[in-house]
């Protein structure tokens, strides 16, 4: 009992600390001060009156949303004695595996750098800066020579690493049993089974209406669709994050989706957010990074060749180039098993004062990375908002799809969940695929790493991502394939 | 890639049943891929085993054949042919303009200015050389606007150019017309018969000369049209819509709208600075194919479903429904404008390809109507769309006599006009919740297989 309370107060303390310096805090203070002019606020009951005022003017709701957002993103604090690595990843062998994987990636990046004699970063000459600024909205017209660049890694390389993960403390025993020998993932992580999933994802039950199924032309809209849309509009009017998250579990109406997702992710596109984006943009203009070429190459290879996303090519550059310079993304490494790579100023290798994170946001894009952004272009058209939505989606969900961790939404768990479900419930299919040399995970791995982007039709994909947001979990990716 | 026609026929009619076994099907070789997409006779012959035959019950031909043979061939009551005798009233740009202008005046007389304004979906157009003076008058009213010059008889973006100054027209005239490549000429074929099970596919004689060669002997007519300078852009790119309308009769007017269609994107970003850049402005797939950075793998097309979803996410359901209702209005009014002029014939039907452009205010404009929409496929998805389109066309034409005539939907086709508007409700003309909901589902979910099964029971295709 004591521990639970202790846990709660730790959480509260952490959230308070995080929100303390934020713009929301200063806005609330300012609002409170302005409210002093209101006749309803009386000195005797100052605290209560201000609280009421904040409630009725919608500011309390904003605070609620912010707190809710923090709760969603950060994991609950573990035992106070646990070292910080444990928030990233509690299992030592996982940390080690992630570390060696990162070393490999970095090695690949550095060797490409040396081969091509291109610096990791350099300042652009003034003329080039001007040119880029003019072309900002149509960077896709650029045809730089990217033939020498290659993606740092592709999902299949990552799968090879995951397949070789082993827990050194786990003894399989002499007899490999049916269950753990057939699949590719050989680590003993706890994954949910069907009854548990059914409970967790109860809103996806057959008895409950779903968009995408129960709003088809044959079903009269009175049964489900109309009411669902009405509720959606109400949720938006109330601006309640938690309610929105609950609501989207049954799917978002197309017209309301953009606003609902923004509400769940707590993105309001304030002037300071736009300013921040503009600053990132100027960083892009001023400095050229090696990863930019990787991003270009990836967009050209993947999104530009996709029938549905090729029109958004220019947006993808505007988002991804800025993303790689955004140091606020570094915050997510506190709860991710990954560590951002460090680079040293020339000649000062090993000296910490001259170390910078490279790329500035610590995320090295891999083959297909741009597909995380592409579906969002269907919903958001204003670059700074699109950017923020993507960034939030990344630091909440997508980062787990390409790092090694034991988190239930991490790719390792998803793979294991998928294999287990398939083995348990469709054993014949699983066995048959193995027999013909097509391990099912090999096929479905790339779908999961990309969260199905590019593999599902857009309307289906967006309905799937509705559920990811609604349940704050990626488990649906593994379960959906059944 | 196998042509959609071959695909369609091989799927639907591979296992014919009793109802069709006595029928003979004719598909003209040029029509296998549509106007302008040419398959030499020899190539087509290799593709199907041919024999000579003279009779057919159903003919899919191109307009050349029609023009030359329709008046001289005796056609029995039950045959079906895929064009109306004077379809050019709708498909040739100068005739379409005339018909629309006349119809508009009539509407104004009968129903007032407001109703007539519903005909304002066609950009201001003048025929040249006959209306040159009228054009110049209009041109001078608003200097600096862009105009587009299109030859009336040609398709696929040939001979089109844009200009802002009258001087540009003079230059063009002086330079002489761009040399036209003579299209591949067919040799005269005897009629061929293709055997596929019990069905015979008959290919009638080919006239040999194409539209253009005919035109060379006449003065070429052009239309000059106000260019839409503020098209709706997605990702900085311009696009137009291709929508399919099937008309099975003009008196009374009976028209079907296909749920699927596609949006054709320009492969380059839109800018008014490069008027001479043919590629930016014309979104016809045929022109795009020759653009320098055209990548056939890129796929310059979106299905209309995607477009509808994108627009709904951006503008909300209300505005998008208004947009699509405005498009329905275009289809109906354009057909009504030629209703009295088209020579009515119970044996004729026609599948039109409408080209629509949306501007930034979400107003749709009619660019043109094609009486022989291209049936070539640029991707797997496109191929399936066209296969299904042709299949459903055959279902609606109903050679087998399976339909009752009361159907409001056949496969992917929805009946949108049956001598009057068709509503979505149960009975023809019934109201839903007191409001009239039109039976149009452009860009909506197309579960045609299921619907066909319900309609025809479990008969093969």
From TrEMBL, chain A:
Entries under PROSITE patterns matching the protein: TBC_RABGAP
Domain Rab-GAP TBC positions: 251-472
SUPFAM superfamilies assigned to the protein according to its UniProt record, in alphabetical order: Ypt/Rab-GAP domain of gyp1p
Pfam family, one: RabGAP-TBC
Signal peptide stretch: none
SMART domains: TBC (SM00164)
Name of the featured protein: TBC1 domain family member 19
InterPro entries named in the record: Rab-GAP-TBC_dom, Rab-GAP_TBC_sf, TBC1D19
Source species, domain of life: Eukaryota
TrEMBL record, chain B:
Gene3D superfamilies named in the record: ATP-grasp fold, B domain
Molecular function (Gene Ontology), one example: tubulin-glutamic acid ligase activity
Annotated family: Belongs to the tubulin--tyrosine ligase family.
Annotated protein name in UniProt: Tubulin--tyrosine ligase-like protein 9
Annotated source species: Meleagris gallopavo (Wild turkey)
Protein's UniProt keywords contain Ligase: yes
InterPro entries assigned to the protein according to its UniProt record, in alphabetical order: TTL/TTLL_fam (IPR004344)
Domain of life: Eukaryota
Keywords from the UniProt entry: ATP-binding, Ligase, Nucleotide-binding
GO biological process, alphabetically ordered: microtubule cytoskeleton organization
Any one annotated GO CC term: ciliary basal body
PANTHER family in alphabetical order: TUBULIN POLYGLUTAMYLASE, TUBULIN POLYGLUTAMYLASE TTLL9-RELATED
């Amino acid at each position: 009992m004591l521990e639970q309370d202790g846990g709660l107060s730790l959480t509260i303390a952490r959230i308070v600390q995080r929100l303390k310096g934020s713009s929301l805090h200063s806005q609330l203070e300012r609002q409170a001060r302005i409210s002093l002019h209101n006749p309803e606020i009386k000195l005797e009951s100052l605290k209560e009156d201000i609280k009421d005022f904040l409630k009725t003017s919608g500011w309390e709701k904003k605070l609620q949303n912010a707190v809710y957002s923090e709760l969603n993103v950060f994991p609950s604090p573990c035992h106070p004695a646990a070292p910080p690595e444990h928030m990233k990843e509690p299992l030592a062998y996982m940390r080690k595996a992630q570390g060696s994987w990162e070393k490999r990636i970095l090695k690949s990046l550095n060797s490409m750098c040396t081969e091509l004699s291109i610096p990791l970063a350099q300042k652009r000459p003034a003329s080039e800066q001007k040119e880029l600024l003019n072309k900002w909205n149509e960077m896709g017209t650029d045809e730089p020579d990217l033939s020498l660049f290659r993606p740092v890694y592709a999902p299949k390389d990552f799968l090879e690493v995951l397949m070789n993960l082993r827990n050194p403390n786990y003894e399989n025993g002499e007899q490999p049993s049916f269950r753990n020998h057939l699949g590719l993932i050989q680590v003993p992580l706890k994954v949910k089974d069907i009854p548990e999933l059914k409970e967790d994802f109860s809103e996806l039950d057959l008895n409950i209406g779903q968009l995408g199924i129960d709003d088809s032309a044959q079903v009269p809209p009175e049964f489900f669709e109309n009411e669902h849309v009405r509720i959606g509009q109400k949720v938006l009017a109330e601006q309640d994050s938690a309610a929105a998250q609950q609501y989207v579990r049954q799917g978002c109406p197309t017209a309301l989706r953009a606003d609902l997702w923004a509400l769940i992710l707590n993105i309001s596109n304030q002037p300071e957010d736009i300013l921040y984006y503009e600053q990132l943009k100027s960083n892009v203009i001023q400095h050229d990074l090696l990863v930019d070429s990787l991003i270009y190459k990836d967009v050209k290879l993947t999104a530009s060749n996709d029938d549905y996303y090729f029109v958004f090519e220019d947006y993808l550059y505007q988002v991804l180039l800025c993303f790689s310079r955004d140091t606020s993304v570094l915050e997510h490494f506190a709860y991710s098993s990954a560590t951002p790579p460090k680079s040293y100023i020339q000649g000062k290798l090993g000296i910490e004062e001259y170390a910078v994170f490279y790329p500035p946001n610590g995320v090295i894009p891999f083959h297909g990375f741009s597909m995380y952004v592409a579906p969002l272009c269907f919903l958001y058209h204003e670059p700074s908002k699109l950017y923020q939505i993507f960034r939030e989606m990344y630091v909440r969900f997508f980062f787990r799809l390409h790092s090694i961790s034991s988190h239930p939404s991490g790719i390792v768990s998803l793979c294991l969940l998928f294999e287990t479900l398939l083995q348990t419930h469709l054993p014949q299919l699983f066995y048959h695929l193995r027999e013909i040399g097509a391990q099912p995970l090999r096929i479905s791995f790339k779908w999961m790493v990309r969260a199905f982007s590019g593999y599902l039709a857009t309307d289906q994909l967006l309905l799937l991502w509705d559920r990811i947001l609604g349940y704050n979990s990626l488990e649906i990716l593994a379960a959906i394939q059944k | 890639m196998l042509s959609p026609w071959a695909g369609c026929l091989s799927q639907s009619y591979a296992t014919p049943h009793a109802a069709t076994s006595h029928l003979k099907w004719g598909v003209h070789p040029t029509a296998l891929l549509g106007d302008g997409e040419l398959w030499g006779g020899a190539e087509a012959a290799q593709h199907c085993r041919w024999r000579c035959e003279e009779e057919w019950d159903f003919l899919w031909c191109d307009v050349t054949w029609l023009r030359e043979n329709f008046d001289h061939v005796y056609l029995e009551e039950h045959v079906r042919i895929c064009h109306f005798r004077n379809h050019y009233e709708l498909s040739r740009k100068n005739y379409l303009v005339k018909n629309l202008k006349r119809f508009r005046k009539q509407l104004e007389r009968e129903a007032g200015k407001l109703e007539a304004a519903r005909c304002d979906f066609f950009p201001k157009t003048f025929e040249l050389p006959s209306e040159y003076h009228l054009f110049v008058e209009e041109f001078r009213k608003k200097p600096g606007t862009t105009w587009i010059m299109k030859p009336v008889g040609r398709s696929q973006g040939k001979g089109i150019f844009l200009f802002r100054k009258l001087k540009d027209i003079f230059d063009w005239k002086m330079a002489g017309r761009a040399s036209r490549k003579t299209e591949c000429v067919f040799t005269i074929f005897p009629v061929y018969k293709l055997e596929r099970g019990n069905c015979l596919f008959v290919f009638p004689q080919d006239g040999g000369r194409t539209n253009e060669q005919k035109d060379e002997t006449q003065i070429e007519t052009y239309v000059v049209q106000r260019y839409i300078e503020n098209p709706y852009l997605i990702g900085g790119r311009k696009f137009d819509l291709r929508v399919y309308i099937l008309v099975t009769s003009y008196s009374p007017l009976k028209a079907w709208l296909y749920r699927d269609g596609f949006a054709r994107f320009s492969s380059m970003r839109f800018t008014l600075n490069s008027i001479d850049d043919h590629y930016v402005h014309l979104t016809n797939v045929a022109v795009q194919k020759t653009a320098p950075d055209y990548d056939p793998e890129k796929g310059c097309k979106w299905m209309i479903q995607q477009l509808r979803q994108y627009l709904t996410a951006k503008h909300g359901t209300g505005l998008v429904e208004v947009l699509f209702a405005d498009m329905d209005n275009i289809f109906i009014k354009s057909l009504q404008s030629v209703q009295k002029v088209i020579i009515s014939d119970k044996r004729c039907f026609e599948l039109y390809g409408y080209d629509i452009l949306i501007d930034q205010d979400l107003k749709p404009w009619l660019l043109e109507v094609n009486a022989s929409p291209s049936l070539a496929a640029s991707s797997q998805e496109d191929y399936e769309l066209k296969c299904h389109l042709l299949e459903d066309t055959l279902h609606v034409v109903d050679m087998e006599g399976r339909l009752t005539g009361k159907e409001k939907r056949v496969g992917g086709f929805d009946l949108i006009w049956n001598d009057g508007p068709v509503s979505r409700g149960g009975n023809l003309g019934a109201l839903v919740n007191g409001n009239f909901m039109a039976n149009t589902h452009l860009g909506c979910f197309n579960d045609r297989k299921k619907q066909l099964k319900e309609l025809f029971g479990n008969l093969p295709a």
